[in-house]
Amino acid sequence: xxxxxxxxxxxxxxxxxxxxxxxxxxxxxxxxxxxxxxxxxxxxxxxxxxxxxxxxxxxxxxxxxxxxxxxxxxxxxxxxxxxxxxxxxxx
Length: 91
Hints:
The protein is of the alpha+beta class. It contains 3 helices and 4 strands; from the N terminus they run ββαββαα.
C-alpha cells in the first residue's frame, strides 16, 4: 500500500495532516500546483513499511519555488515568543 501525508501548517491555529490512501502522487502535485495545499510543512510518501520525505520533489514537480521563511513567518514567530514570555512572567 502506498499513500501520502501532507502536513499543512496554520501557524497559531495548529497543523493538519491530510491523509487519503486514494490520492495519487499526481493528485498531490496537482493540488500543490493549484494552491489547494498551501503552507506545506512536509509531504511524506508511505510505501509498505518505509517513509520518505518527498517534499522537495513534489514542490519541484509542481513548479513552485522553495521559499524560505518570509517576513510574515518571522513576525509570527516573534509574536509567539513574546506571548510565551508573558505567560512565564505571570506564573
